[in-house]
Amino acid sequence: MISERLAVIDDRGQIDVWVVDDDDQSRLVTTAALQEESIIRDAVGFPSAEEALEVLRYTQSPPDIIFLDIVLPGMNGLDAIRHFKQASSVPSVAVITGFNSEENLLKALRQDALAYLVKPLTIEKLNAAVRDIQDNLVHIDKEAVRILTESVEARMKSGREYGLTVKEREILHLIRAGLSDESIAERLIMSPGTLRKHLEHIHQKLGVHDRAGVILKIFKENLI
Fold this sequence. Notes:
The chain is α/β, with parallel strands linked by helices and 224 residues long. Helices cover 57% and strands 13% of the residues.
């Protein structure tokens, strides 16, 4: 469906774009910047996902790309992606946000967003996203890439520094999930005594003395 939509964009030359952003100033600036680009035939703004979805249901001129803010009144942008994807004429979605986080980035990509842009937006950012979407490429701007890279590196660094084994990391996953020691032993098919040995090694490696210390370490340092 997405590839068919992109083929239509390329054949037609110019494209129509919507901007869904409740910040009036940001929305006006973004639509005005897009309209300056020769590839954009029209850029229309909406203050909420609900309003854009309502128009999308009845319009005879659906957008090719929707720039969708995450933080919106009512339905947020991440939840709205699914509804836009259910439209008869499926637009490509580019997520925009002023709050850069790995969690939001991954949620957007899991829902088939084709771009992730961090405010403040520039015409260079917008144009690069449009071009990549036309080429059927996922576009993630450099600020988001930096956050993702730092997060991955922190996890890898933590695992290497503490020398955790595969089994010990598996135990940490289950502790983070809230399982009791008894449930962890049952899940991993090991005796309570064997689990206690693993926990002793984990405590020694992490420099903590109890389960509470382990949990604090997991969340404070993004161990898993």
